[in-house]
Amino acid sequence: MTHSILITGAGGQVAHELAITSSEHRLVALSAKQLDITDLQQINDAFTEYRPDIVINAAAYTQVDRAEEETASAYAINRDAVANLAQACSSIDCPLLHISTDYVFDGNKPGAYCEDDEISPAGVYGASKAAGDAVLQSLLERHIILRTSWVFSATGNNFVKTMLRLGAERDELGIVNDQHGCPTSARSIAEALLQITERYLCGDEIEWGTYHFCGRPETTWYGFAKQIFKQANGFENLRLKEIPTSEYPTPATRPLNSVLDCSKIIAQFKTLQPDWRDDLDNILEQLGYLS
User: Is 125 a catalytic residue?
Assistant: First the structure.
């Protein structure tokens, strides 16, 4: 039986990967221009037109530093729009899968964060995402909040593409070495979301709630950059310098520890935790950096 899967945020990295995935189901990916999720009426109209069996919200305000000044915009998209989607899904008894972030944590924990650890966002972006998670939990029982981290892909703006651009322009790059996390490809996030979706559409019992999903192994931004230039062609003479966060000030505070414990999603959905270095190879090939 063919089902309808509605995907928001079609301009983003994860939604792009969801939209190009082959599926027996009807995938409807809508951009912000096609569906403004801050407008409840537009959502209701889209639900009437596409009659979704499940919704994946991949839309978000993700400009971490700009959020410190554009607070209203961050909350409108990351909290209020999530409330709109949750209300609309509730009205048609439709589950909602929602992407969240490691930035809901302050990064002070010495080990990997579990789903039930106390949240304490250090900036507006993380606080707005945490608010969206909370409103979803209060409005819709059948939901999945998928927290992830350090997202990269061949499209959009991300660390991999920034490093490749800067590496081509400069002889030396200073990269932060005291922030720890887990790079995660948009493709692997899309696959995890579709795995959960398929389980639901097949009629399997789903344990709704919050899950962590990210790549392995953990690294630092410096370690991530070093691996990018190791796997990519053409950067043999580039020098990388390790620097502390204090030498790279930003408007928004970054968590020093963004490592997520993925044991819950592995146990519940048998989801494989991908090696981000393998995904990096695939993306470098798409971008023309592998021979």
Answer: yes
